[in-house]
Design a protein that fits this description.
Layout (H helix, E strand, L loop, with lengths): L2 H14 L4 E7 L2 E7 L5 H8 L18 E4 L2 E4 L12 E3 L12 H8 L9 H14 L5 H7 L11 H19 L1
Helix pairs in contact: 3-6
Length: 178
């Protein structure tokens, strides 16, 4: 956005009496920048400003994990983070897991192991799993359970999810050794 246009946008917000802040960050590898309400959550920024609808709103209180994304390398509940706190950060959402229109290994394993049923918890579960595998490529079952402890699922009973994460971990390690 050119400086002149940006200045006019800022003036528009000031003239309307609505306070706005500029949030610039990298989401799924792309630079984004928006003028937003300073009280907007990161969840609403992703869904309403960027139209990334994979991140779900469940409880809005950080209890269910449906809104989990990776912010600066860590799994976080995006409903608990103000969008302006993410300024300058790198964000990964479920839409950014695959490459070139292909599913990631983790996504493939969730499907293969029937680790999703209604699908509501799946994006958050995938993001918690991705954050785990990024920091620990060889997790034990207890590591997996701990990583997904903040993600509630009412359909699967968690065993297919744990198996999918374990199998994805094995496949990713095998692929990196080739």
């Amino acid at each position: 956005m050119c400086v002149e246009h940006e200045h006019k946008v800022a003036e528009t917000y000031l003239d309307s009496g609505l306070p706005r802040v500029r949030v610039s960050c990298t989401v799924n590898g792309e630079s984004v920048s928006r003028w937003i309400d300073p009280t907007m959550s990161l969840l609403h920024f992703l869904r309403h400003e960027l139209n990334l609808l994979g991140t779900k709103e469940g409880c809005g209180e950080g209890e269910c994990g449906a809104c989990t994304i990776i912010l600066g390398g860590k799994a976080v509940n995006s409903c608990l983070v103000l969008a302006q706190e993410a300024a300058g950060s790198r964000i990964l959402t479920v839409e950014g897991l695959g490459q070139g229109g292909r599913l990631s290994v983790l996504q493939e394993e969730f499907i293969k192991e029937d680790a999703l049923q209604c699908g509501f918890c799946t994006p958050g579960m995938l993001m918690s799993a991705r954050a785990l595998l990024d920091r620990n490529p060889e997790p034990e079952e207890e590591d997996i359970k701990e990583a997904i402890a903040g993600n509630l699922c009412r359909c699967t009973g968690y065993y297919p999810i744990i198996k999918a994460i374990r199998t994805a971990s094995e496949r990713e390690r095998e692929a990196s050794q080739r």
